[in-house]
């Protein structure tokens, strides 16, 4: 839960409002309807949607989602799963009353574990999730990213915390200006790793 939650929060805080919900949605779909965790993620998903629609000047959509998000978050304490919900609920009330507010002030950043994390603050687990979300958002092929994530996890479990795949996932998520070059390098590394594995399999 934490990795999905934190990945989505960092994506949101870096301004990728439409993409943020993808990090939360996969986890949300597995949760029991009406549970506190489900309400949290459902509320955050709709918060990101409200902001996105407001920025697209879809005022009716923004109002509807802001109202719905507020309802999902209303039953939760002010701090839940170490997410500060009070400021979010207040902002949702303002957007529901005046969706054009988003043009005059930025959305409330999401605070988690005492800070408002961005993509550069994420550790390995949330970064791997964010990499897939951002690849989809920006139109990159998903298979190399997903394979790199699998290799990074495997290397980490084997004690290789200096894995090149971990480094490349961090770079893909954090380096906006060089994301295309990083993706090319990542794809090449995935191809070489797959070739080595195929060579080993061919020996038996």
From TrEMBL:
Cross-referenced Gene3D superfamilies: TTHA0068-like
Domain of life: Archaea
Signal peptide positions on this chain: none
InterPro entries: DUF309, TTHA0068_sf
Database matches in Pfam families: DUF309
Matches recorded under PANTHER family: EXPRESSED PROTEIN
Protein name listed in UniProt: DUF309 domain-containing protein
Taxonomic source organism: Haloarchaeobius amylolyticus
